[in-house]
Amino acid sequence: MSLSIRNQIPGTVVSVTSGEVMATVKVRLDGGQEITAAITLEAVKELGLAAGSSVRTLIKSTEVALATGAIEGLSIRNRIPGTITEVTTGGAMAGVKVIVAGGELTAAITKDAVTDLGLAPGSSVIALIKSTEISLASV
């Protein structure tokens, strides 16, 4: 199956914490970082997710925010450091490619944000992704 989601990074499930309807799934990406996905308990069961399961994390580029430094007092748990490799701007929006350990992320952000933050190839950034915006696929 082909997907339009550009951000697809492989990893291994570290743990699954189940609630009544939702579960949090901690995944160690192939680059070593840990991220958390909040998905339905039904999806956990259908995918057969458990510690040790191989998965692919799927993140829409519109759900990736970028920061130029550490941010305190933020509820977003998924903070992945990386380096910008490419910035492509259009009329209002921009695509920013970020190399991270074990893969690459693309962030779709406004052109104004690129300008205001001074984003350019070689810049260090932190990709911020809410756990509810991460999907998982079993492999």
Structural commentary:
- 10% of the residues lie in helices and 53% in strands.
- A hairpin with a 4-residue loop joins strand 2 (22-29) and strand 3 (34-40).
- Strands 3-2-1-4-10 form a 5-stranded antiparallel β-sheet. A 5-stranded antiparallel β-sheet has the order 5-9-6-7-8.
- The chain has 139 residues and is mostly beta strands.
- The model has no long low-confidence stretch (mean pLDDT 96).
- It is elongated and about 45 Å long.
- The longest helix is centred in the N-terminal third of the chain and has 7 residues, at 41-47.
- The protein contains 2 helices and 10 strands.
Summarize the structure.
By secondary structure, this protein is mainly beta.
Short descriptors:
5-stranded antiparallel beta sheet, mainly beta, 53% strand, 139 residues, single chain
